[in-house]
């Protein structure tokens, strides 16, 4: 029976990956800089602070990494506060987990303070005992240690702890860490659905998928 849950935010709880996929590219273009091919895919694996460092060093921008990170966070905050919406069926999932007494935290590559404001606006903050950034956890999501750190925070067992992620690299790291993995469908990463299904314990895409997960993994 599930005792603990670790949730990603962007693309898992909130429909926001399109914004993030264009954020770094648009930032460079706004400064008259041509982005390298495949930049969005590369930045998708970075925590926000590492993105700031990468853009500064790789494109020789005359701003500190912290200033660039703040610029990106300001863009995200505007989107979060005005346009971002919950993903379908996540409220029902969170309600079921909460009613079952499951301990829940978030692990996000974004800034935790910005994410907290987003979750508060959407009425989702109440479900989580902690909102942690990769920077705070000390590991990015390319490393299984990110999820092992979350496991330590929850103080639950691997066998009863689920990680919910939409991105391939993150879901695979959680799998390598030995936790149960719920792959979350998101249109921007839909090309990876088949490979994610190959190692995720469950893949949640349709209303039926969410309903079955609640019945078979939570309400038992």
Description:
By secondary structure, this protein is an alpha/beta fold. It has eleven helices and six strands. It has helices at 17-30, 39-43, 48-59, 65-82, 90-99, 112-121, 134-137, 145-154, 168-176, 193-199, 207-218, and strands at 4-7, 103-108, 130-133, 161-165, 180-184, 202-204. Strand 5, helix 10 and strand 6 form a beta-alpha-beta unit. Helix 1 packs across helix 4, helix 3 packs across helix 4 and helix 4 (65-82) packs parallel to helix 6.
Give a short synopsis of this structure.
With 220 residues, the protein is an alpha/beta fold. Helix content is 50%, strand content 12%. Helix 5 packs parallel to helix 11 and helix 9 (168-176) runs parallel beside helix 10.
The count of DSSP E runs of length 2 or more, i.e. the number of strands, is 6
Residue fraction in strands: 5-15%
- Unreliable stretches, pLDDT < 50, 5 or more residues? none
Radius of gyration: 17 Å
Give the topology string: H per helix, E per strand.
EHHHHHEHEHHEHEHEH
- The overall pLDDT average reads 96
Number of domains: 2
Shape: globular
CATH topology of the largest domain: Rossmann fold
Percent helix among the residues? 40-55%
**CATH class designation of the largest domain:** Alpha Beta
**Main sheet makeup:** 6 strands, parallel
Pathway: Organic acid metabolism; glycolate biosynthesis; glycolate from 2-phosphoglycolate: step 1/1
Pfam families: HAD_2
GO molecular function: phosphoglycolate phosphatase activity
Protein name: phosphoglycolate phosphatase
